[in-house]
Amino acid sequence: MTDVRGRPFRWAILGTGSVARKFVLDLRQLGAEAEAHIVASRTPANAQSFASSLGVAHVAQSYAEAASADIDALYIATPPAQHEEHAMLGIAAGKAVLVEKPFARDAAAAERIMQAARAADVFCMEAMWTRFQPLPGQIRDRIAAGDLGDIRGFDGSFMAANAPDPASSLFDPTRGGGALMDRGVYPLSLARYWLGPVTDARATARIGDTGVDEDCTLMLRHTSGALSTLRASLRAGGLDGAAIYGTKATLRIAGPAYRPTGAVLYRTHVGPAVTGPKEPRRLEGLRESAMGLRLSRGLAALRRRGERLGAPFSGNGYHYQARAVMQAVAAGRTEDPRMSLAESVEIMAMIDTARAGWSGGEAS
What we know:
- The protein has 364 residues and is an alpha/beta fold.
- It has helices at 18-27, 44-54, 63-67, 83-92, 107-120, 134-144, 179-195, 281-288, 290-305, 319-331, 341-356, and strands spanning 9-14, 34-40, 58-59, 73-76, 96-100, 124-127, 151-159, 198-207, 213-222, 227-233, 241-246, 249-253, 262-267, 307-310.
- The radius of gyration is 23 Å and the shape is globular.
């Protein structure tokens, strides 16, 4: 995808952490269509090291310099507390902006970004890269087709154990750290993507010594009536995946939550509404016999085979969202319906509600 000047789509990279490195590495999946043109960091030496190791042509001495360079889009991978400031730099310069998740520090900041982007008529989107990968879109299509029936619920979790470090942004409340902001945002965003708008959100958390939620759980009620339960942790390992429950089938999605590549659709066996006295007496005895238990296990094993869902996947998953931005800019669009600005604001509002409602979360 070269423009009228015959050059690649140029990205400015703001931030030099591990996520920014993965994004730049994955731009290589797009070949000559895209390049990381310039990089900026709060520490120029870090930007220079990043550029040298990844082949970025230019190093900016400030974030503002990167935003005003001859580029097409900014990829913002700085801590969440800085997202609004850096997004505004790109918007003011008339450049497309891709802002890492979570979109902002809170819903008010997210709203300001949205309003500024719309007023300037420039492309802006949260970098919820999971939504742009092949499998999540395929799952949404299966839900829309009715393959799962009436959706009744969703479970999702993203848990990983990290040693608490006040110097790390994960454990720093001033930089937007915490389990919900860093990890819970993935299952939360997927719950919204697959099950639709939320009418009620409740949460609880365990707050660590640095002041961030180290463990949290959320319960959501969607407009459809479906219920979602979500869990995230910075301190404990655990299940890392998701499941969608419908009246016709259950879909179990293998982790990691941020990059699911496989799922199995299990058809639902609908039993009778009443059992016991109304059953023939010979079946009552058979149900609890050794033979009946073997038969029950055999039927359960057949149901467990399920239908496997998969999707082609290349790179580490970041280039799908990069291509979406590039296509939107080429077409003159300012948003992508797969991750609209209004929905990013809505998700940040749910995070605000969750944080305001923490209970029993004293440091321990």
